[in-house]
Amino acid sequence: SDRLLASAQEVPHRCKDGRVLWGEVVSKPELNAQGEIVGYHGITREITKRMQAETKLKLFRALLDNSSDAIEVLDPVTLRFLDINAAGCRALDYTREELLSMSIYDIDTAYSAAPQKVLAQLRESGHALFETIHRRKDGSTFPVEVNTVSVELDRPYLLAITRDITKRKALEAAQQDVARHLQRIIDFSVLLSSANEAIAQMENEGDLLRTLCELAVHHVHLRLAWIGQPDNEGWFQTLAAAGAALGYLSGIRISTSVEHPEGQGPVGQCWRDQKPVYIFSISQNSHMIPWAQRAETFGMKAGAALPIFRGGKRWSVLVVYHSEENIFDADLQKILT
C-alpha cells in the first residue's frame, strides 16, 4: 500500500542562532515479521540553497507577471517565444501555451520587413530600441515600443520589453493636428496681410489678380487658386489663376444659374448668395458631382468660393482648392469671411 512507500518532505529547522535551514527528509517505514510498522528510518539532506533559489525564482516570476509591460524571452536564431509574462499574454490575447508555440513573425506585422536592421543593432551593441506593430489573436493591431537586449546565460537569449504606445501615438497625433491647425491660421493670416499689401501697391488689375492667386498658392499651399467672373450669358471666365492644378480649369464650365447643373456648385452659389461657400469634402458633396472626378485627378479634396466686391457690388469670385479634406474649419472661416 501507499503507506509503505518512501516519502519525502521539505521541513524547516530553526538553528540556535535563529537561522532557518531547510532539509529534505526522505523516510521509509520499517516493518516487523507480521508486516506491522515498528518504526521509520530516513535520510535528511540540507536544501536551503535550493529553497532560497526557488523562492527567488517565484518572486522573480511574480514580478514579471505583475509588470505592466510585456516581457518576452526569445530564441535569438528562430525568434520563437521561450517565455512570456502575463502582461504579454493579455496584450496579445493568447495563452502562454499558445505563444510558446509561436514566433515573433506570428504577432509582429512590421518586423519581418526589416529584421536584419534590428539584428545588426543587437550584434553591434547588444541592444536595440525600435517601434513596430503587434497583432492580437483577433487580428486587431496596436503600436508598441520594443527594448531588446542580448543576454548570455547557459546559452544566448533575447530579452524584449514591449510597451503598448497607443495612447502616446494618439497624443502625438493630436499635438501634430493642433500644430498644423495653428500653422494654417498663421499662413492664412499672412496671406491676407500680403494680399492687402499687393492691393495697395499694384495699379495694373491683371497683375494684381494674378499676384493674389500666386500669394494664395504660396502661403497656404493650395493646389489651385483662381478668380472667375461671369460673362453676359452667366458662364464664368477665368481672370487669373495659379497653382499646380491649373489643368483643372481647361474646358471647365461653371454657370451662375441654379437651373444648370454647372451652376449648383460652390462658385455659382457664392455668386448668387454673395457670401462664402465652403466644400469640406469634394468627393462627398452632391453639388460637386459635375467636377468631383476631375478634381480628384488633380489632387483637390476641399475648396472654398469667396465673393469679391467692387464698389459695394459683387464683381467676381475667388476659388481655392486644397489637397486635404475638412481644412476650412470654423477658425479659417472667421479669417476668410
TrEMBL record:
PROSITE patterns: PAC. Residues 7-59 form the PAC domain. InterPro entries: GAF, GAF-like_dom_sf, PAC, PAS, PAS-assoc_C, PAS-like_dom_sf. Pfam families: GAF_2, PAS_9. This is PAS domain protein. The lineage of its organism: unclassified sequences, metagenomes, ecological metagenomes.
